[in-house]
Amino acid sequence: MIICVDFDGTIVDHRYPELGKPVPEAVTWLKRLQACGAKIILFTMRSEQGIAGDTLLDAVRYLQDQGIELHGVNTNPDQQSWTSSPKAYADIYVDDAAFGCPLIRPSGFSRPCVDWKKVGPALEHLCLSRR
Hints:
The chain is α/β, with parallel strands linked by helices. The chain is 27% helix and 15% strand.
């Protein structure tokens, strides 16, 4: 299973260009999903050459420091053999801005963020069912 995961509001609080506080349970669930066999693609608006510097590298390093192995960054390397589309192919996309995504508002956060207590178990169930 391939999962595209947004960064701000999904893995950390919205504090762009800085890194916000960790979204509760995001890293825990990403690790569990990887252990289940899921491939994680970071799918974010952060960029290498933005006005605020290399904010994409900040996000990639954050995930690497947390023990998350990325299958791709804003691209799915497996799709190059069958399409030239710039959209990263995935089975699932997790984004705080996605319609219907369960959200929470932790104290001190700037905006609502993904509720991994709901999203994580549902994704793990899908991952396990595809084994």
